[in-house]
Amino acid sequence: MTAPSSISTIQLAADRLRSGGVVAFPTETVYGLGADALNTDAVDLVFTLKGRPRNNPLIVHVSGPEMARRVASAWPKRAEMLARAFWPGPLSILVPRSLALPASVTGGGELVAVRCPNHPVTLALLFEFRGPIIGPSANKSGMISPTTAAHVRESFIDDDVMVLEGGACEAGIESTVVDVMSTRTRVLRPGLIGADELSAAIGEPVDVCAPMGNIRTGDSLRPGDAFPSPGMLERHYAPATPAFMFASNDWERLLATSDPVVVITHRLRRVEAPHRIIAMPPEAADYAAALYAALHEADRSGAPVILIEQPPEDGTVWAAVADRLRRATTRMP
Predict the structure, then answer these.
(1) Is residue 280 part of a domain?
(2) Total domain count, the chain
(3) 245-292 residue pLDDT tens
(4) In whole angstroms, what is the distance from residue 170 CA to residue 291 CA?
(5) Are 43 and 156 members of one domain?
(6) Pick the residue with more confidence: 112 or 268?
(7) pLDDT in tens, 32-64
(8) Alpha carbon of 228 to those of 14, 16, 161, 198, 209: distances in Å?
(9) Do the beta carbons of residue 152 and residue 164 sit within 8 Å?
(10) What is the pLDDT of residue 214?
(11) What does the alpha-carbon distance between residue 264 and residue 312 come to, in Å, rounded to a whole number?
(12) Are residues 135 and 202 in the same domain?
């Protein structure tokens, strides 16, 4: 296992951010592609490196509520209660953006997503840099999110992106995104923290919006309009290899072909050559932590097709996993 980045390396990374450069950093969810959130040119560079649509907002990473207020024009009571309950952790909170924040960070929208990540390397970077850092996933737009430093290096060269080492991400899927500015607090992107937990923290009901992935670029949005939240593209988290999700009762039919396939499954299964299996943990949190690494492995396997057995959708974490898989795959006919 590679050792986490040293203090001296973190200091170099902070200097790079101050000079307008880009640094990939580890979090408990996925690796982020970081730049100074208050530097318009640095923000634009991240969009360019990722090939990210300009109306797709970015999450701003902060060291806590005090730094969050630097990029927010208001910090509602709900935001404070959720930050106290879940930060540092996998929760991004949508609040009104400050005019000090470049409009490009929010895709031109009025709300900014802020979160405090739960990873010692990135918390050290935030304290060393002493400012907010944007941090979309450190991959090309729409492709599989990175959960190791090696995954980041598959997408970017060292001259463009300095990569901080932090080991494999423990949670493995992106943060829950919650909007506290609506009449009722609502979850816009599912993650490891569910509506029931959020409701308990603020003492009022929390709505869950329709699953992400039903918004297409240009669909329900006028040209130039910002997406309401990060992580709302229909095609997202996807391998380059065609990937299909299938129901368990289709197992035998799908493997009857002689063409080699790689199968990602959470059940105890055996297949004959030329097929191969990537076995996934049966528990939801463990499955989530292993998901993107499995997709990266399957994408590198050389198989012409990836098949993913549909996991359960009961419970907060399985629902978040299902959201990611719906947008990474096509349903089998």
Answers:
(1) yes
(2) 2
(3) 998 888 877 777 767 889 999 987 777 777 899 999 999 999 999 999
(4) 11
(5) yes
(6) 112
(7) 999 999 999 999 999 999 999 999 999 999 999
(8) 30, 30, 28, 20, 12
(9) no
(10) 43
(11) 14
(12) yes
Q: Return all residues near 45 (Cβ < 8 A) that are at least 6 apart.
A: 20, 22, 35
Phi, psi of 34 (to 5 degrees): -100, 145
Q: Are residues 249 and 202 in the same domain?
A: no
Last residue of a domain, one of 183, 208, 233: 208
pLDDT of residue 235: 67
For 162-205, write each residue's pLDDT tens digit. 999 999 999 999 999 999 999 999 999 999 999 999 999 999 99
- Residue 185, token pair as written in the block: 């607090």
Is pLDDT at 225 greater than 80 in this prediction?
no
The C-alpha atoms of residue 312 and residue 323 are separated, in whole angstroms, by 11
Looking at the fold, whether 188 and 320 belong to one and the same domain comes out as: no
> Is residue 223 in some structural domain?
no
Phi, psi angles (nearest 5°) of residue 113: -90, 125
Judging by beta carbons within 10 Å of its beta carbon (0-12, 13-18, 19+), is residue 218 exposed, middle or buried? exposed
Q: 266 with 156, same domain?
A: no
119, 254: one domain: no
- pLDDT at residue 191, rounded to an integer: 96
Query: 232 in a domain, yes or no?
Result: no
Burial class (CB in 10 A: 0-12, 13-18, 19+), 278: middle
Domain that holds residue 248: 243-331
Q: Count of CB atoms within 10 A of residue 120's CB?
A: 14
